[in-house]
Design brief:
208 residues, alpha+beta, Chitinase A, domain 3, five-stranded antiparallel beta sheet, four-stranded antiparallel beta sheet, 4 helices, elongated, disordered C terminus, rotamase, isomerase
């Protein structure tokens, strides 16, 4: 069966940077619903469209085709008191905790903005440095600003079920996030982030 719209595709892949340094090479394949459901990058979908099991290829994605350019405005320094204990490099938060000293007017504005953006994807901030009184947060994806190379191989193709098409993802599947730590140990998360940011060539601001 060839890959076409509304097929479930299993792709083995290896992700490297432009210098072929390996970023990610998982044991399990990426499984997604093909056909513009945002299960993977559009350029990868276009590459494998019409292909069959066994097809393999390598493709490079520029930052605007992957995780976007690095945005320095998403790098924030916040008071340590706003964050819970324990707090370590690699931990992630949805948005930045509100300041206790925030005025009522500012709080009302923030609340109104939250209602307007209720359907928007929440911005995830990663802790990149912790000092005695301040915390450095980065709202960029760890691979933002990087050109990425994907080696992919089609492992399996099947027709999607009606439920999978309605739900816009494979049964039991979750949104796939390349290069993001998930349920790994804290040490693994910190090591991953240091490697990803180091490959990017971006030096995190420190407070020491």
């Amino acid at each position: 069966m060839k890959i076409q719209k509304n097929t479930i595709v299993s792709l083995r892949y290896k992700l490297t940077d432009a210098q072929n340094n390996v970023i990610e090479e998982p044991d399990s394949p990426m499984i997604y619903l093909h056909g513009g459901y945002e299960g993977t990058f559009p350029k990868i979908e276009a590459l494998v469209d019409g292909q069959d099991i066994g097809y393999e290829a390598t493709i490079q994605l520029e930052p605007n085709e992957a995780f976007g350019e690095y945005d320095p405005e998403l790098l924030k320094i916040e008071p340590r008191a706003r964050f819970p204990e324990p707090l370590e490099v690699g931990m992630q938060f949805e948005g930045v905790p509100d300041a206790d000293s925030e005025s009522d007017d500012a709080a009302q504005v923030a609340s109104a903005e939250e209602e307007d953006d209720a359907d928007a994807e929440p911005l995830i901030y990663t802790v990149t440095d912790v000092a005695d009184n301040q915390v450095v947060l980065d709202g960029n994806h760890p691979l933002a600003g990087m050109a990425l190379r994907f080696w992919v191989q089609v492992e399996d193709v099947r027709a999607a079920t009606e439920d999978e098409i309605e739900n816009r993802h494979p049964e039991g599947g979750e949104n796939f996030t390349f290069g993001m730590p998930n349920d790994a140990e804290d040490d693994d998360e910190e090591e991953f982030l240091e490697k990803a940011l180091g490959l990017q060539g971006h030096t995190s601001r420190t407070l020491h």
